[in-house]
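Per-residue structure
===
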Amino acid sequence: MTNKEIISRLSLVLAPYRGKLIIAMVGMVIVAGFNAAQAYMVKPLLDEIFVNKDRVLLNILPLALLALFLVKGLFYFIYSYLLEWVGQCVIRDLRNSLYAHLNRLSLSFFHNMPTGELISRIMNDVAMLQGAVSHALIRVLRDFFSVIGLLCVIFVMDWRLALMSMIILPLAVVPIVIFGKKFRQVSTRYQKSIGEATNILHETIGGARIVKAFCMEKEEEKRFAGQIQHLFNTLMTETRYRCLSHPMIEFLGGVAMALIIWFGGMQVLKGHSTTGTFMSFLTALIMLYEPVKGVSKINSTIQSGLASATRIFSLLDIAPDIVERVDAVELPTFHDTIEY
């Protein structure tokens, strides 16, 4: 299942909550605008207050900053709460849909599918998708609007430096794409291993009398320990990729920052730009770079959620072998006796 198909299926699940999502989007746009305003305020702080000694602006700017943070915090609460609520509703709906779908499937399906695998899909896979929808979705959408606002600030401050940063900073996206594929593969293996471990638990606990009757405790311990070791190895592989991706992105961003500081500093020394303009640009650029680094941190969560969505929708797509006719006669409720 491709990413486009997964997103299309998730959009259908999100459709009943479109109104609250729109309100959350408006809140994120407002917060992004305030983030851009924070970066822009560095310019009058340096140029007008510290250089030109403007006392009136010195009295106004702190009050404006307090009002900015107050309103920003209010809208941050609104959109964060709404998106979290929508995410939890989506998870609730998916779990109910999965359970209802399982009850409609034929008996032959349950003969071929391990019970632990089904439990893992309803509980673990949906929980991992919850992390992607409730947390990663909030951060990705919030950062997207913040990036748009900060891009406007850096182009207003210095379009030449902005163009340079647009050429260099996208290099930091390369490790995100590369490691994203690795995270998806590892996450699929992890979820499969969880299903197998859950199935071993179900078999051992459900068949405890048989295990004890044949004195198979040691064998079952070895089988479960081997599965848990495989699970541990899978998790450490994901940890290795995650810990490696962040410093790589950090280094590429550092190279970009160093070049921009050198070029921007030369512009200030030559008198082509003011200190306030450059520092405002640099502040906006640093704030702009934070979402890029943040993507590397939540990339594994997003890929795990997409892998979980694939497993969830593949289960929902399984059609029962026996389907009731549309015009089937509904049997009356049984009370006392059956008459032939």
